[in-house]
Amino acid sequence: MAAPKRGRSASAQSKPGRSLALILIAIVALTGGMFASGNTTPRLGIDLAGGTSITLQARNEPGQPNAINKTNMNTAVEIMNRRVNGLGVSEAEVQTQGTSNIIVNIPKGTNSAEARQQVGTTAKLYFRPVLAQEASGAAASSASPSASASGSSTASPSASPSSSASGSQTATGSSASPSSSATSQGRAVTDGLKAGSTPSSSASASSSASPSATSSADASASASASAAASKLEAEYTALDCTKAAQRATAGKSAKPTDTTVACGKIGGAWFKYVLGPARVDGTDVKKAQAVFDTQGAAGWQVQMTFTGSGSKKFADVTGELAKNTTQPTNEFGIVLDGEVVSSPTVSQSITGGSAEISGSFTQQEAQSLANVLSYGALPLSFRTESVTTVTAALGGQQLHAGLLAGAIGLALVIIYLVAFYRGLSLIAIPSLLVSAILTYTIMSLLGPTIHFALNLPAVCGAIVAIGITADSFIVFFERIRDEIREGRTLRPAVERAWPRARRTILVSDFVSFLAAAVLFIVTVGKVQGFAFTLGLTTVLDVVVVFFFTKPLMTIVARRKFFASGHKWSGLDPKGLGAKAPLRRTRRPAGPVAGPVDPKEA
């Protein structure tokens, strides 16, 4: 039984190069992936790079106890992303944290007060009649609005403006065939504003864009309406939706009862609009979902269902819009936070309480529009838990201080290893280096993958990890020394010490990882950065010790410098107070002679 066991042990000892080759391949692969992706440095958090970090907590509205769920939270993140981008912020990030928190990280150079106001309020969704529209900025020369109308018993909203490269879109209550008719409406829009063109008689009653609708007896009201129309026309003429700064303000402060200008991106091109007062509120949408038409050729569609009061409002406005036969006065704009996300046309009143928007949608576009429509009725509000603003200079100072602290900690650990373990430090220091390379490359790759950002608590976690990794080496080295003190030579001492050291290292790292996991689950914000880094480096400690430190120790145990117990090897038997080598004593082969029993004599 003993012979096979020694054979397996000898085989395991003779091939430590396999483990070293495996970890070397992993390092090369991770490093290659890091350079190939272009992410050669870890992403820095707001506290190190500078900027504003906002933590929002979702709350259920009265009567909606189960509104906080993954779908609603993801939709909220999408809307907040649109808002932050509307501020002209580059590389801003909005992501969920846990089940009820949203973290908004806004880089330096942004008005944090405005950002906080934008991301913390509930989305405003309205259905507004379109009074005028045209391609904006550079797109005006090549893109013209196009639309199609197709009626059915329930609905026929259809295409919004698109460039010549984009397909047409059709909205119906049941089924429709998309069609398109390109027409330039730039000049006609201006004339329509002067003449008081409106989608319907009821809309013109509340619109201030038609001074001719006032009575001749009310001269002051007519003058006021004329001034408002002139101001609106000037805003519309000057509006360039290709510029982020103008998009960020266009229509954002308008009240639901106001006639306003707005921007919208349709078919890859920006268009500008004049919109009438809101006729349907976002809270009137009961449900919206993206579905694929398996029966016809409509492809991806967005199905809307309205509440009881919303059904009547939508039937009224679509009935009024259907009376207009010219574009864009037969369109209604779906406006989210002042931006037009879709502007389908109408040919008949939609009275069934539901509608379908269909056309050349991709799956992603259909789902995005459905999310936007659903968000108007989303029963969630958000409370600001914390707002942290860090200047770029302060962030740089904190990063420098964190790196300095890490360098000092690493230097102290190396000094300790050299002073107490001498030659064994030649094993510990490369192991620390391998652990550092793995940690750095993985952190760099996790930035674009899971939006991991290296913040100051995460740097603290990495510093603590230096001690955890060094502790594993010390446990292994002390077990080897214990075996040498018992009188064993180095090679058997290494193999006998490893099982005992392995058990201790695994238990210790499991406790550290468990603490990191609990901390990550029960906390939010920057503390999670500390917990994540601590957990990651703890896992890497196990990988390094098993696949690098132990095989390397097995190899150096064969070298004369260590095997002979040189005084600078850290394994000098004399210095360790070793016992004399263990020897086996043989029992005599024959019977032992002794005194003869008198009785036998």
Q: Span between N and C termini?
A: 47 Å
Structural class: alpha+beta
**Helical percent range?**
40-55%
What is the number of E strands?
A: 16
- What's the helix count? 18
Low-confidence stretches: 1-12, 138-215
The radius of gyration is: 37 Å
Write out the strand line-up for the largest beta sheet, numbering strands in chain order.
Answer: 4-9-8-14-13
Average pLDDT number: 75
* Strand percent estimate: 15-25%
Anisotropy-based shape: elongated
SSE topology sketch:
Elements: H1 2-14, H2 17-37, H3 46-49, E1 51-60, H4 70-86, E2 93-97, E3 101-107, H5 112-120, E4 125-135, E5 146-147, E6 169-172, E7 181-182, H6 186-195, H7 201-206, H8 219-238, H9 244-247, E8 260-266, E9 269-275, E10 280-281, E11 285-293, E12 299-306, H10 308-322, E13 332-336, E14 339-342, E15 354-359, H11 363-375, E16 380-390, H12 392-421, H13 425-450, H14 456-485, H15 490-522, H16 527-556, H17 560-563, H18 573-576
Parallel strand pairs: 8-14
Antiparallel strand pairs: 1-3, 1-16, 2-3, 4-9, 4-10, 4-13, 5-7, 6-15, 8-9, 11-12, 12-15, 13-14
Helix pairs in contact: 2-13, 2-16, 4-5, 4-11, 12-13, 12-14, 13-16, 14-15, 14-16, 15-16
